[in-house]
Write a structure and sequence with these properties.
It is a single chain. The relative contact order is 0.14. Strands 1-2-3-4-5 form a 5-stranded antiparallel beta sheet. Strand 4 and strand 5 (173-179) form a beta hairpin. The chain has one domain. The protein is globular and about 50 Å long. It is of the alpha+beta class. The protein has helices at 3-23, 27-34, 38-46, 53-62, 67-70, 73-86, 88-101, 103-106, 108-123, 182-203, and strands at residues 128-133, 137-142, 150-156, 162-168, 173-179.
C-alpha cells in the first residue's frame, strides 16, 4: 500500500470519527445511517480498513462532504509532509534517541506529544482544554457533553516512549498507558464517541435507534 492509500484510509477514519462525535451516534446508529454492516463501520473507525474506492464518493455524499476536497492528492501531499517533519512516529523516534543520551532532555518532547494529541482530538470533533504541568506531562480535560468526567494524561514511560492514559476524576483508570500512535488514538476516539453517545442517549431517552454497548479499549485496543 502506497503512502497516498495509507493516508486515505486514515483520513476516512478521521472524517467518520469527527462526524460520529459531532452527531453523538453509536456505532449501530452510524451503520444504519450509512446503510452498511456494523462490523464494517467498526473496522473503518478503528483505522484497520477503508471502504472500496467506488463506495467512498457515495459515503461522502451521505455525510454531505465533497469527496474531491476531502481526499485530494494536494491535501495528502501537504499532510504527509507535515507528518514526516513532526508526526507521532517521528516524535517517538526522536524521544527514544534523546532518551538514550539524556533522559531529562527527552522529557521536553512529552509536551509536544500533548499538543499533537490535543490537535488530533480537536480534529475529531471533541471539545477539550490542554494543560501542561511542571512535571513534563500534559493533561487534556474534555468539555464535550458526556465526557467531562474523563481526563487524558500524556506522559513518558522510560524507554517505552511517550504515551497516554485515560482516567476519571476519581482516578479510576479507564484506558491503561499505551504508546502515542495514530492507531491507538483512533481507538481512543471510538471509546470517547461511544461514551458521549451513551450519555446523550441517557439524557434524551428514546431519541436514538437501537442500542450499542461501548467497547473497552483497555482490553483490546482498536477492537
Amino acid at each position: 500500500m502506497n503512502d497516498y492509500l495509507r493516508w486515505k484510509r486514515r483520513r476516512w477514519t478521521e472524517v467518520l470519527s469527527e462526524y460520529r462525535a459531532r452527531k453523538h451516534l453509536t456505532v449501530q446508529q452510524l451503520a444504519e445511517f450509512l446503510q452498511k454492516p456494523k462490523f464494517s463501520v467498526r473496522m473503518w473507525l478503528s483505522g484497520k480498513r477503508a471502504p472500496h474506492q467506488k463506495d467512498l464518493a457515495s459515503l461522502c455524499a451521505l455525510l454531505k462532504l465533497d469527496y474531491k476536497s476531502v481526499f485530494s492528492r494536494e491535501m495528502a501531499t501537504d499532510l504527509l509532509f507535515e507528518e514526516r517533519i513532526l508526526g507521532f512516529d517521528t516524535l517517538q523516534l526522536r524521544y527514544l534517541e534523546v532518551h538514550q543520551r539524556d533522559a531529562f532532555a527527552a522529557m521536553n518532547l512529552v509536551l509536544i506529544g500533548g499538543c499533537l494529541t490535543f490537535t488530533y482530538l480537536l480534529k475529531a470533533g471533541f471539545q477539550a482544554r490542554l494543560e501542561n504541568n511542571s512535571s513534563f506531562g500534559s493533561k487534556i480535560c474534555f468539555l464535550t457533553e458526556g465526557l467531562k468526567s474523563y481526563l487524558l494524561h500524556v506522559l513518558a514511560k522510560g524507554k517505552e516512549g511517550i504515551g497516554f492514559e485515560v482516567l476519571d476524576q476519581s482516578i479510576k483508570v479507564h484506558i491503561d498507558w499505551r504508546p502515542l500512535h495514530a492507531m491507538n488514538l483512533d481507538a481512543l476516539i471510538t471509546f470517547l464517541a461511544e461514551r458521549s453517545a451513551a450519555a446523550t442517549k441517557h439524557d434524551h431517552p428514546g431519541s436514538g435507534k437501537g442500542t450499542q454497548s461501548a467497547t473497552d479499549p483497555k482490553k483490546e485496543p482498536g477492537a
